Amino acid sequence: MLGRVLFDSTWFVRDDLRPLQRRLVMMMLGLGVAFLAMLARLWVLQVLQTDRWRAAAENNRLRRIPLEAPRGTVTDTHGEIILDNRPTYQLLLFPEEMKDVSRTESFLTGIGIADEAEVRARVTRARKTSHLPSIIADNLRWPQVASIAAHQAEFGELQVHPATRRSLPAGPAVAHLVGQLGEVSPEQLAANPSLRSGQLVGRSGMERAYQDTLGGTPGALVVVVDALGKQVSSLAEEPPILGRPLQVTIDLKLQREAADAMAGQVGGVAAIDPRDGAVRVLLSQPAFDPDLFAGHLEPARWRELNDDPLKPLHNRAIQALYPPGSAIKPLWAAGALADGVRTPTDGVSCSGAVTIYGHTYRCWLKGGHGGVSLTGAIEQSCDTYFYRLAQDAGLERLAGWATLFGLGQATGIELAGESSGLVPSDAWSRRARGHPWYGGETISVGIGQGPILVTPLQLAVAYAALVNGGFRVTPHLAAAGGPAPTPLNLDAGTLATVRHGMELVVGGDRGTARRWASLPARFAGKTGTSQVVRKVEGVKWFELPWDQRHHAIFVGYAPPDAPTLVVAVVVEHGGDAGAVAAPVAARIIQKAFAPDFDTTTIKPNLPEGVDLLPPDATDGPDEPQTANLTAPAPAPPPAGGGAG
Amino acid sequence: MRRLDLWMILASVVIGACAVLAQSSTARALASPGFVNRQLLWLAVASALLLLFSFADYRILVRLAPLLWGASILVLVAMFVAAPVRAGTHSWFVLGSYTIQPSEFARVATLLAVAALSAGHREGQLDLKQIGRLCVAVGLPAVLVALQGDLGMALTYVPILLAALWLGGLPWKVWVGIVLIGLVAAGGAWTVILKPYQKERVFTFMDAERDPYGAGYQQRQSQIAVGSGGGLGRGLHGGTQSQLRFLPAQHTDFIFAVWAEETGFAGSALLVLAYVALLWRIFAVAFNARDRVGVVFAAGVGLVMAVQILVNIGMVMGLAPTTGITLPLLSYGGSSLLAAGIALGIVQSIWRLRFANV
User: Fold this and answer.
1) Do B299 and A27 touch (CB under 8 A)?
2) What pLDDT is stored for residue B215 in this prediction?
């Protein structure tokens, strides 16, 4: 029965199979074509395109991990370290290995890398360049290093990486000078392929000016990774090339002295060697902790500094603009003598006020100076003398002299962001203020008031020309030297007369800085008090609110006979130049030329209880220079004694 | 008793040897040394099954086809309840430490059923009723497998139906109709049946750069592996794409990429030629079969295998979308090897009995 079912003859009958075989052959032919095509495709991929696919395979497995190059060290003129490196630990994130982004983020937040939002922002940024590790944190603390090591198995994407970080032994004293590092910008990355995302480059100061010297060349480690991004082995290492060392003209002991002298005050100091323009001191107050910028800065800390009304990030020595006040007088004197507007013996009788163009201009000394010569006018800072001088010279001559001494233009120091200042002209007035220059304003410019603005460094350069025999120098930081000085073709007698006046400022019986004549290292110079608001009769400067007090300026040089140092000091709202700005310069000069003298005995001469900082730092001071430039000047302009 | 077809055996041995070498490489890459031994074990069992079925009478098996087919359908239905979800499908039946994929064996049963149905066909007499039966015999298990989530496997059932209809002498007008219906069905499947990840695979196939780290990743990595093999390969165990695990599913769907990377064009051409030889012998059996049943069964086995090879290698080379179709005799997996052993054994039986008069 079963056999009959299984072997029903009709089922396996041997009928004519030729039509089936014909169709079978057609099927085989079709398949044969398909297999031939497949072999051809294999030939193309494997034999003809080998190189292309090999390269793709190599690209898959090989990964370059850049190695940061330690930046070059910077030493001062005596070889003392200004800027060095210290070992630190960075945290690298390999984004492709991250299994659970939110877990990693909460771990990083937990060990105190940054707050939640900041950690998320950094991780997100790192994931954009997913094929490269990113520096997610800098300057790790020991407990953080330990926590990461303890959780290494869980978070294979995190790697603690030894690195270096900038160290500044002098701290805030060199903060502005050294400048800041910052992460390389996308534009810089595009322009320079040797830079890598997240790398630190100089953003300001010497770090920026000498980026090429200090920067070095990052190296790389070539590693083999698997599909999960795990490092399997390393193939080759290109060691990083260290940044080159740099010696600068700065004198660190003078820089420190300047910082000590300016402590608790707001302003800028620039000191240069008048013979060649070598910068010895470049200081801005208030400063900041430069270690904040030595690595990757948290945006919150940056905002805090940036929003500070006292603007600690501003490098006042080269960026802040101040009316020079009476400190301009020696320049006018030199110009007037050179152009024959005055002779050394021309005298003026000062009665305490003078009327020009129907307007009364007051000398700072209410009772007047009586008869004064040019040297006497510098010594006592007689305003009347210089009102008359300005009237006789006219704006164009004044502007010409200012330009001759380098005002109104960048000094050419290597640092970026330098302000060029302002030397007024009729054309400037029409362009910037929309009205012509008023004759009365020229009289104010005669005592360094009104729309004439300078930086501390510009003052130092201008005075250098007065005391070095009439050469305009280019201030420079590189110990290797700067551009050659430009001769200004000033007569030796002219310069000698002006210098005599400046010696009397300290050494004369009626000098405005005679208080400091007894110090061991003799010096000369000129005081300047530039007013911020109109002077009110009978009100002492320290009775005014901080932000309405005058700026105190002193430009000094030493030794008087053969100067090798010019120091320009601006103390914002310092009130009294001789009492507040001159002692700062005096301290720096004593440190330089009388090293055994205890400079801490030199103190600003302040009435009891007067502070040189705003009472509440959140009510920031007005920006006097801005006010001068933008407020429409009334005609005639404010005039009054720039007290010397 | 007449001799077995030794060329077919030889081709199978060559392919099996390639499989062992390739799996030794993936075993190293995936740190699973057990792969090689298991593959060898399955090869041995498959060879035994091949011999066993060679000496059986295929006509008895064809007579039992309705029974085997019915049982397969029952098992496939039972899978929905009995099989846990593995890799997103119900396709695997767990038995101790082994997993069995019944759809592989059901395909052999389906081949037998189709052969049995074709026994009653006569040249030029294929009618709608017969066509309907063929469609049910292939369609029912195929739909069940597709519903389990294994679309690639379901697609390998389709050549069985095509072989039966083609050999049955379906008029060309009907073929045009089938193509049209196929297009409509594909459109329907696209909107109703295909899961989003399956659609994504098709999109990715059409534009591999669409998602280089997602669905296009596999295709690109596999192409890199094949191409970087070059003429002579990177050496056994020397392929970076497989050893560093850039290749996905390298012991199953993408095993050919491992082989091609490590042995180059020389090795991959050798393997393809071994497949061609195997298929040649299978079709030779079909050509020489004593009856219609033998022709249809052997040709069905050959066409299923050929389509699998073409689609799988096409996918590995970036010419076909990633469908989840494995490479016969090479991909890791016991069920597929055993089922292949059975199918080839039956083909040998057809060869052995090609002159039988009873």
Assistant:
1) yes
2) 54
- Inspect the interface and report whether the beta carbons of A53 and B313 lie closer than 8 Å: no
Burial code (b: 16+ CB inside 10 Å, e: under 16) for B190-216 equals: eeeebeeebebbeebbeebeeeeeebb
Query: What's the CATH fold of domain A63-247?
Result: Penicillin-binding protein 2a (Domain 2) (3.90.1310)
- pLDDT tier at B203, thresholds 50, 70, 90: low
Q: Coil, strand or helix: which one is A142? A: helix
| Residue ranges matching CATH 3.90.1310.10 in chain A | 63-247
Mutation target among A9, A12, A59, A232 for the B interface, most CBs of B within 10 A: A12
Which positions 52-71 of B are in contact with A (Cβ < 8 Å)? 59-60, 62-63
Q: How far apart are the first and last CA of chain B?
A: 13
Residue A551: pLDDT band (50, 70, 90) is very high
Per-residue pLDDT reduced to its tens digit, B150-195? 888 999 999 999 999 999 888 888 888 878 888 888 888 777 777 7
CATH class of A252-287+321-630: alpha beta
A571-609 confidence digits (pLDDT tens): 999 888 889 999 999 999 999 999 999 999 988 888 777
ipTM of the complex as predicted: 0.92
Q: Which amino acid is at A130?
A: S
- Cα–chain center distance at A187: 20
Q: Where in chain A is the domain with CATH 3.40.710.10?
A: 252-287+321-630
Question: Token pair of B296, please?
Answer: 């249809």
Smallest Cα distance from A13 to chain B, Å? 6
Q: Does B265 touch chain A (CB under 8 A)?
A: yes
| CA-based nearest distance B335→chain A, Å | 26
Task: Confirm or reject contact between B122 and chain A (CB < 8 A).
Answer: yes
Q: Looking at A326, A373, A429, A444, which residue is catalytic?
A: A326
